[in-house]
Write a structure and sequence with these properties.
The structure is a homodimer.
Chain A lengths: L1 E6 L6 H14 L4 E5 H8 L7 H20 L3 E5 L5 H11 L4 E8 L2 H7 L4 H6 L21 E4 L5 H14 L11 H4 L6 H13 L5
Parallel strand pairs in A: 1-3, 1-4, 2-3, 4-5
Chain lengths: 209, 209
Amino acid sequence: MFTVWFTGLPASGKSTIAKRVEEALRRRGLDVENLDADEVRRNLHPKLGFSKEERGENNRRIAYLAKLLNKHDVVVIVAAVSPFEEHRRMARRIVEEAGRFFLVWVNCPVEVCKARDPKGLYERAERGEIPDFTGVSHPYEPPQRYELRLDTAKDDPRTCTEQVLAGLERAGLLQPAEAGTGREREGVALTPEEEEAIRERLRQLGYLD
Amino acid sequence: MFTVWFTGLPASGKSTIAKRVEEALRRRGLDVENLDADEVRRNLHPKLGFSKEERGENNRRIAYLAKLLNKHDVVVIVAAVSPFEEHRRMARRIVEEAGRFFLVWVNCPVEVCKARDPKGLYERAERGEIPDFTGVSHPYEPPQRYELRLDTAKDDPRTCTEQVLAGLERAGLLQPAEAGTGREREGVALTPEEEEAIRERLRQLGYLD
């Protein structure tokens, strides 16, 4: 099993794409859990803040949950700002104890994120109402190691979702959708010899010329 | 799916029985996670202490993990002192959002636990080296609501494990072991009419007199 971990600035599009990927994977018959970073905070450590150390703690806990679920054959989707390279590497190490880790860098210029700002968080952060806000008063380290980079200022959510699914297929984590039904799905694709034998039989029966 | 939550004093036998129940359920083909309370502490909140409030936090977090796993068809086993009725009720409420909650009270007189004391914790607590130690300097509230009570001063771990499995069967959470193999397991037991029709056919074919 595997964990798809989306990292990026607030309002870069992480959650939107994570939600679409979650639904696409479920349609392909996978058991999926979308670990919403805010919900995990609320349930596991409501009093945790947003200092570098506390963000690391949050990432570590989410990674532990992801590992636990991967171990039981549940695909995990995570959308978390996770702005520090060292914390992302730690999350990778933890998840890899039980599954594979697929890091998606949701890249978007901070100016575009600020212009979107669907929850008005950048505005509040710039007024000084939210301390340690990534992109305003807290750094975001662009990933050095990642499996896929999306550019959400250029590509729409649908395109980005397709890029993620294609990336998972290339990494061998997901069966191509074309092979998602029928015999191939079960790993019983015909050999060329078998296929020829069947064609021959159909020819004998008059179904093929 | 369901969570079996063992509550009781330190050294009452919770972990020993939990481990045996885990193995028995796995032998019956279930996907099982044994959420060791110490491991959860280490992974989720290493700095959390043992005050009443912090114990409540710990119970809440374990319950959240259990809920998440139950949601994905994983049976969860928890062994946690969980000395307060209000925290056990909270854990029940959380788990019941996704699965069923089966509380096992591992009852054992504190004198017997102290005499066992496999890790020497009671001794250290009595020397004042461990603060807030349940049974010495911290209270244990006997459960008012529970699904099963074990008496580990009287019954050995094997007997207690059988009592838990029988309790889970009575509660409809577990198929009786006798029906654990063959057709009945799949819910396709034959009706008397079908059985007679098959016997008749076998007779015709000369397999039966």
